[in-house]
C-alpha cells in the first residue's frame, strides 16, 4: 500500500498520507470546508459525522460530510459550496 | 443506483464498543448478525484508529476488535440508517446505494455525540469539539507545533489533552467548567477503582498538572477568518490565550434519533432500557451511551447483555447484571460531578448563532416556547444536522425538548428513497 495519496482540492493537487480524511486534507491545506447561509467560513467541528459543518462536494456529489470520507487517489474535492 | 435487500436475525446499529460486544454475544448464540456503522472503520469514537499511532488503541480495544472480526458478524461500514419504512425493516444508504435490512431483533448501539454549547465566535474555523479535534487528529490533521486550548467538561478533556501533547501540540491549558470540589469528590469516589485514577494521573503528568484548571469556562473567542485566541473566565477573573485550536466539548449527548424514530421510549435524553437492555419496543434493545452516558466498561457490559437477549440467549449473561448495576453508580457520580453550571446559559450574545446549519441567532430564537415553533418561524434545526447540535444546545440553554424525529434521519439521495414511493409499504414487508 503506498504511503500517500494524491487528491485535488478546488483544482489544486494535494498529497496527503494514506488514511487521511478529506476534512483533514482540506484543513491541512489551509482551507475551510463550506460557506454558511450568511457567508461565513466553516470547517469540521465534531469530527464524527454529526454536525455537517465539514460539507464539501466529493467526486461531483454535493454536501458530503468530509470527516467521514477517506482520501483516495484522484479524488476531486470542491469546497465553499 | 443499486438496491440491496438483506435479512438478519440480529441487526446492530453502531460498531462502537457496545455494538461490537452485542454482535459478538449474538453470534455466540448462533445468530446471523449484521452491523451497520456510519464510520469508515469499526471501533466507534473511543476506539477510532489513529494513522500516526500516537493515539495508540489499547490492548483491550485490539482484543475486542479482533474478536469482532473473527465473530462472523457482517459489518457494513460507511453506511447509515436513514429511515424505517416498515415493520422490522430499516433503509440504509452506502455510497448512494440503498440497502433494505429486515431483522428479527435490533440492538441500538448508536453511541453519543459531544454537547457543543454556543458562545461568541464558536462558529469560527478552529473551534471544535474536544473529541472532535481528537478524531480529526486521528484522521491525519497534524497538530505538531499547534497551540491547542482544551475546554468544556468531563473526564474526556484530560484524555484528549494528553493525546494532543503526544501529537506534538502545545496545550497551554485544560479548563473544566466543573468546580474543583466536584471533580475532587468524584476522583475520591474512584479510590475503589485505582486503574481509573492511575489513568488520570498519567494524563495529568503528560499535560503538567498545573495546566489543569477547574471552574473555568470559555467566554468568547477572537479571530477574523480563523481562530486567534480564546477568553477564559472563572466568573471573576478572565484570561486571554492565543491558540490555533480550541477543543471544547461539554460532555456527551446520547444519539437517540433512531430509537425515537422506532417509537422507543426516551427519558432524560436517553433510550429507556429494562434490565435485559430491552427498550419499550419488544424486539428492540439498546446498549452503551445511547441508553445513558456511562462510559466504556458499561458500554461493553450492556452490549453483551443486549446482544445475548436480542439473540434469545439471556441465560448466558446473567452474571453480568450485577456488574452493570455497580458501574451505573460510578456513572451517576460522574454525571453529577460534571453537571453544567448555570453561567454557561449566559454565554450566547444577541448575534451569537445557535443553529449553525441555518445561521439562526440567539436573538431570533427569543419569544418562542419550544423547538417546534422556533423551527417553523426561523428554520432553527431544519438544516442537514437536523437539530443534533442546536437542539441539544437549546435543551440546555432554554429547556426545550427535542422535536419529534421524522425520517430521513440524515440527508439522503433521492434515488435511495424513490423505491419506497414505488411500492406501498405493505407490499414492501411481504416481499422481504
How many beta strands in the DSSP annotation of chain B?
Answer: 21
Average pLDDT across residues of chain B? Answer: 93
Largest interface: A-B, 36 and 39 residues
CATH class of the largest domain in chain B: Alpha Beta
Q: SSE string of chain A, helix = H, strand = E? A: EEHEEEEE
**What fraction of residues of chain B sit in β-strands?**
15-25%
CATH superfamily membership of the largest domain in chain B: FAD/NAD(P)-binding domain
For the record, what CATH class of chain A applies? Alpha Beta
Report the sheet with the most strands of chain B, covering strand number, pairing sense and barrel closure: 7 strands, mixed
Structural category of chain B: alpha/beta
Structure commentary:
The complex is a heterodimer of chains A (81) and B (432). Chain A is 9% helix and 35% strand. With 81 residues, chain A is mainly beta. Chain A has one domain (4-78): 2Fe-2S iron-sulphur cluster binding domain, sarcosine oxidase, alpha subunit, N-terminal domain (Ubiquitin-like (UB roll), Roll), CATH 3.10.20.440. Chain A has a five-stranded mixed β-sheet, with helices on one face. In chain A, strands 3-4 form a two-stranded antiparallel sheet. Chain A is globular. In chain A, 51% of the residues are buried. Chain B is of the alpha/beta class and 432 residues long. Chain B has two domains: 3-113 and 253-335, FAD/NAD(P)-binding domain; 116-250, FAD/NAD(P)-binding domain, CATH 3.50.50. In chain B, the strands form six sheets. In chain B, strands 1, 2, 3, 4, 5, 6 and 19 form a seven-stranded mixed β-sheet that branches. A five-stranded parallel β-sheet of chain B has the order 8-15-9-10-11, covered by helices on one side. In chain B, strands 12-13-14 form a three-stranded antiparallel β-sheet, with no helix packed on it. In chain B, strand 1 (3-13), helix 1 (17-28) and strand 2 (33-36) form a beta-alpha-beta unit. In chain B, helix 1 (17-28) runs parallel beside helix 8. The longest helix of chain B has 18 residues, at 320-337. The radius of gyration of chain B is 22 Å and the shape is globular. The two termini of chain B are 19 Å apart. Mean pLDDT of chain B is 93; it is low at 426-432. Chain A binds chain B through residues 16-21, 23-25, 27-28, 32, 36-38, 40-53, 55, 61, 63, 67-70, and chain B through 38-40, 45, 51, 78, 96, 113-114, 116, 123, 125-129, 131-136, 139-142, 225-226, 255, 356-359, 383-385, 388-389, 411.
Amino acid at each position: 500500500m503506498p504511503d500517500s495519496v494524491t487528491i485535488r482540492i478546488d483544482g489544486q493537487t494535494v498529497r496527503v498520507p494514506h488514511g487521511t480524511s478529506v476534512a483533514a486534507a482540506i484543513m491541512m491545506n489551509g482551507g475551510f470546508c463550506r460557506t454558511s447561509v450568511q457567508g461565513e467560513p466553516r470547517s469540521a467541528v465534531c469530527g464524527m459525522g454529526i454536525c455537517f459543518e465539514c460539507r464539501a462536494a466529493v467526486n461531483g456529489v454535493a454536501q458530503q460530510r468530509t470527516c467521514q470520507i477517506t482520501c483516495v487517489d484522484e479524488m476531486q474535492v470542491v469546497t465553499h459550496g | 443506483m443499486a438496491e440491496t435487500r438483506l435479512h438478519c436475525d440480529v441487526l446492530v446499529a453502531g460498531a462502537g464498543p457496545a455494538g461490537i460486544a452485542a454482535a459478538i454475544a449474538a453470534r455466540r448464540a448462533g445468530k446471523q448478525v449484521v452491523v451497520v456503522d456510519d464510520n469508515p472503520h469499526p471501533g466507534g469514537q473511543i476506539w477510532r484508529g489513529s494513522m500516526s499511532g500516537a493515539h495508540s488503541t489499547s490492548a483491550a480495544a485490539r482484543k475486542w476488535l479482533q474478536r469482532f472480526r473473527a465473530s462472523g458478524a457482517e459489518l457494513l461500514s460507511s453506511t447509515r440508517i436513514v429511515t424505517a419504512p416498515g415493520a422490522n425493516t430499516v433503509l440504509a444508504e452506502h455510497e448512494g446505494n440503498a440497502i433494505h435490512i429486515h431483522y428479527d431483533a435490533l440492538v441500538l448501539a448508536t453511541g453519543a455525540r459531544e454537547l457543543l454549547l454556543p458562545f461568541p465566535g464558536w462558529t469560527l474555523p478552529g473551534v471544535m469539539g474536544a473529541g472532535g479535534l481528537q478524531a480529526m487528529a486521528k484522521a491525519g490533521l497534524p497538530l505538531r507545533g499547534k497551540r491547542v486550548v482544551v475546554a468544556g467538561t468531563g473526564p474526556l478533556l484530560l484524555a484528549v489533552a494528553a493525546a494532543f501533547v503526544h501529537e506534538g501540540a502545545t496545550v497551554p491549558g485544560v479548563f473544566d467548567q466543573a468546580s474543583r470540589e466536584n471533580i475532587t469528590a468524584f476522583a475520591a469516589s474512584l479510590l475503589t477503582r485505582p486503574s481509573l485514577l492511575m489513568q488520570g494521573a498519567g494524563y495529568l503528568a503528560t499535560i503538567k498538572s498545573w495546566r489543569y484548571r477547574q471552574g473555568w469556562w470559555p467566554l468568547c473567542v477572537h479571530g477574523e477568518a480563523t481562530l486567534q485566541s480564546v477568553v477564559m473566565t472563572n466568573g471573576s477573573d478572565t484570561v486571554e490565550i492565543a491558540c490555533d485550536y480550541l477543543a471544547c466539548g461539554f460532555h456527551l449527548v446520547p444519539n437517540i434519533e433512531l430509537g425515537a424514530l422506532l417509537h422507543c421510549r426516551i427519558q432524560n435524553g436517553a433510550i429507556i432500557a429494562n434490565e435485559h437492555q430491552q427498550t419499550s419496543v419488544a424486539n428492540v434493545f439498546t446498549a452503551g451511551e445511547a441508553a445513558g452516558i456511562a462510559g466504556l466498561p458499561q458500554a461493553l457490559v450492556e452490549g453483551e447483555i443486549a446482544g445475548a437477549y436480542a439473540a434469545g440467549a439471556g441465560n448466558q449473561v446473567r452474571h453480568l447484571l450485577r456488574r452493570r448495576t455497580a458501574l451505573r453508580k460510578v456513572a451517576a457520580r460522574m454525571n453529577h460531578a460534571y453537571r453544567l453550571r448555570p453561567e454557561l446559559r449566559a454565554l450566547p450574545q444577541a448575534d451569537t448563532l445557535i443553529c449553525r446549519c441555518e445561521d439562526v441567532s440567539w436573538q431570533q430564537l427569543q419569544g418562542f416556547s419550544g423547538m417546534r415553533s422556533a423551527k417553523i418561524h426561523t428554520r432553527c434545526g431544519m438544516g442537514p444536522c437536523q437539530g443534533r447540535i442546536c437542539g441539544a444546545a437549546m435543551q440546555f440553554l432554554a429547556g426545550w425538548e427535542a422535536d419529534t424525529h421524522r425520517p430521513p434521519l440524515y440527508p439522503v439521495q433521492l434515488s435511495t428513497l424513490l423505491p419506497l414511493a414505488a411500492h406501498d409499504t405493505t407490499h414492501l414487508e411481504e416481499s422481504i
